[in-house]
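Co-fold these.
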Amino acid sequence: MRFASINKEKLFELINFLIKEKRGRIIGVVKKNDDYVFEELENANNLYLAYDKPTLLPPGKKYLLPHKETLLKFQNASSEIINEAKPTMLIGVHPYDLWAIKVMDAVFMSEPVDQNYAEKRKNTFIIGVDYLNPHPNSFCASMDTDEINNGFDLLLTDIGKKYIVTVESEKGEKFIDEYIEYIEETTAIDQIFLDNAMSKAKEKYELAMPIKKNNLPDFLEKKYDNPLWAELAKKCFSCGKCNLVCPTCVCFNIEDKAELNLREGVREREWQACALTEFAQVALGHNFRGKTEQRLRHRIYRKLSYTITKYGVYGCVGCGRCINSCKAEIASPVEIIKKLGEKND
Amino acid sequence: MIKEKNYMEPKPAKIIRISQLGEYEKLFRLELKSGKNIGHKPLQFIKVSIPLIGEAPISVCNWQDGFFEIAVRKVGDVTNKIHTMKINETVGIRGPLGNGFPIDEMRGKDLLIIAGGIGLFPARSLIHYALMRRENFGRIIILFGTKSFDERYFPEELLNWQYRGDLELYQTLDKNDSRWSGYVGLITAIIPPVQINAENTCAVIIGPPIMYRFVLPELRKKNIPDTQILMSFERRMECGVGKCGRCQINGPKTVWYTCKDGPVISYADILRYELKEAI
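Predicted complex below.
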């Protein structure tokens, strides 16, 4: 790992240069009404790196596992694999979203490797930015996702007039060397500023998981038949919003779409959501998870238990997007764990 | 650069024979256009792909050289479409997928195969396999229960199994029929009379979800060890390789992917993993 620094104005100059260079898509955080979104940048002035609320959709999911993705193309009798991956730079990915990409890697890069995901992953250059002003619904510090040491190419930390740049990957090294005229060395005082910024941020979290992250799977093991699930189900709309916005919700559907001529078409995958009624439904209508309470329990176990046993990574990164988005106000993993702790089994 | 294998790519297979099995069921004999064997284990499945319609997970239902067969009940888009297809037409297939039976562990054991309804289709791959390697197994006992006389699929094969002498077949119908002189009643009723050596028996259950709940207690009464009770499960599947998340079977401790960890699992493992959603 290597550290450098970049003056804020220089960073914006550099990004504008990259946009003009047109080597690939430059994606960054942009303010939209009261929210933030990742979208293609036309000008670095639109980039909003100090954002203090998770973007509506997570960048990893949006660009590495697009909402709809063509896997096969049909033409008359033949089919052809489609695996398109434009060179993409993601600027401003918060650490929790970088942790979420690790979860996606665990799912899609394990055998058999998902080639469409792998190709996009390979062609994506990730510039993270530390989350120094956490939103009241974020609980990253208690999920150990407020900081990250790998899983990005560059990571920016705002220390006032400049950013400290943590260089993690070979691609990151190359990038720094290529644009060295924009970059400065770090000083000993920069390191102090960096450590200060990070420890201050840690203290700013208003929300925390009530029990230690490592104890969650054991805790949940005893809560499977807790009455809370049915209680929450009474309020749940089964709308799937919690899944839609979750950076580690990567379940999908595969469906064929035909052109009007009925000779051409595509096989697509599209995000699916375990909260939706039809998630586990099969032909003729039998539903293996037909009850709302089963589905919302499934989501919590998948986030806080199953991904650990299956992949060794936590499926919840504490971003709080589900809390921000749930109309019924029942999606919060923190609240659910709290209530499960209070309720007798 | 070597082009890496994309699991979504279907291999073309030609339909070489079609036969009607029941009112809604047809048997399709297929061969890969590459000329290769698909190389499946009993109870592995494939994703059948029909361009512009979609994919469906279907068990391979035979064990023979040179070709493979799928028995398809029409219940959805893909299965309805394949029912309209003719000999020499092409479908795509992905697979074989899933774990299949732990054949090596079953060697030397008596097989007690319990099939309900179209559970006979996947069970047939194991029966074929066991008959081809008859010397590897002890007794082969098949219990087959189905709703009606017309849902006795593969009647010629059933007849052959009944009289060939090296296996035992017991059948029952849920509904009586004037053409039927055999047993009438649920499959659970024909389990108790079967005499077995429990320690050396490997039981296999394949049928509709509800059947497992009633058959398991009967097998436990016979003292068959839980490690020797094998079941095959079906769930909604999209990718077939453990990514899409649709076929998960949950419990308080862990999760099991029907497509990749299964579809075959022992009752002992279900208990060990506490897969409450399984049964």
